[in-house]
Specification:
This is ROK family protein. By secondary structure, this protein is of the alpha/beta class. It contains 9 helices and 13 strands. About 35% of the residues lie in helices and about 20% in strands. The chain starts with a strand and ends with a helix.
Length: about 290
């Protein structure tokens, strides 16, 4: 199950890891809302598979925020109205099922590796409202000592030096994210990614600058991930990937431009490592189920 700010997507997997049922619900925020949404998703999958809830082996949940996997607690998931919630214990009490939690981007990395049949080291770059990455090595996710592995959005390396809500300046998230578009291109409204390319085509200079910053920032993330982890594949996911070929081609062209100027980068074949998650992929839900 992938619990997000606007929707909750859930899948049922058979013992071979194949998706046999899916459901998508609006996420109701707050403690009771999140719990009720999760229960409703489990009930829907049971109906869709002609099973009872008790027939499920377990439930894995990918969710934003700070995740304490051992305690089954999610903290600071403010986009769904959660400050502190022992989600695993409370959902287990309501369903009678074993519940595990993981960060939503880590879950998406696991799911992408499985669905795209990618082996070796995979870096999953989530270009969404925020910016972060998930890392998987031969199917095993890397979480780090404090669960912050992949928080590349708060690396202060961008030359624009824009202020970031985290208190630093020049974080990658201030250029390569939906929140950056909303903050620094306010004409785009609440969902700037949906109207960005139309504004670029209409000749809006601010939209054009925002798009160029997004492309450069995303390419910087790919370069960073390759230099830090040397992954076999960098999979681009998140809502902004739905900008389509113009974004992805722009990222690849930027990487190729840097490679043309640097024999060192040329040998790394940065652009050739980039793949894109399918637009309808339930990667985070699948990864949570497998985790």
């Amino acid at each position: 199950m992938d619990i997000g700010g606007s929707k909750t997507e859930a899948v049922a997997l058979d013992p071979a890891g194949r998706v046999v049922a899916t459901t998508r619900l609006h996420t109701t925020g707050g403690t009771e809302g999140v719990l009720s949404t999760a229960v409703a998703a489990i009930d829907a999958l049971a109906r869709n598979t002609n099973r009872s809830v008790g027939d499920f082996a377990a439930v894995g949940i990918g969710i934003p925020g700070q995740i304490d996997r051992e305690a089954g607690v999610v903290r600071h998931a403010y986009n769904i109205g959660i400050d502190h919630l022992p989600l695993a214990a409370q959902l287990a009490e309501r369903t009678g099922l074993a519940i595990t939690l993981d960060n939503d981007v880590t879950a998406a990395a696991i799911g992408a590796a499985h669905l795209m049949e990618l082996s070796g080291t995979l870096a999953y770059l989530n270009l969404g409202t925020g910016l972060s990455a998930g890392l998987v090595v031969n199917g095993v996710p890397l979480r780090g000592a404090h669960g912050v592995t992949g928080e590349i959005g708060h690396l202060p390396v961008d030359p624009l030096g824009r202020p970031c809500p985290c208190g630093q300046r020049g974080c990658l998230e201030t250029v390569a994210s939906g929140s950056a578009l909303k903050t620094f291109w306010p004409a785009g409204g609440d969902h700037p990614g949906r109207v960005l390319l139309g504004a670029v085509d209409a000749g809006d200079p601010d939209a054009t600058a925002a798009f160029e910053n997004l492309v450069r920032g995303a390419a910087s993330c790919v370069r960073l991930l390759v230099l830090a982890m040397d992954p076999h594949t960098v999979v681009i996911g998140g809502g902004l990937r739905l900008l389509g070929p113009r974004l992805i081609d722009g990222i690849r062209a930027t990487l190729e431009g840097w490679a043309a100027e640097s024999p060192f980068l040329a040998e790394l074949e940065l652009s050739g490592r980039v793949q894109v998650l399918a637009s309808d992929s339930p990667a985070a839900a699948v990864g949570a189920a497998l985790d």
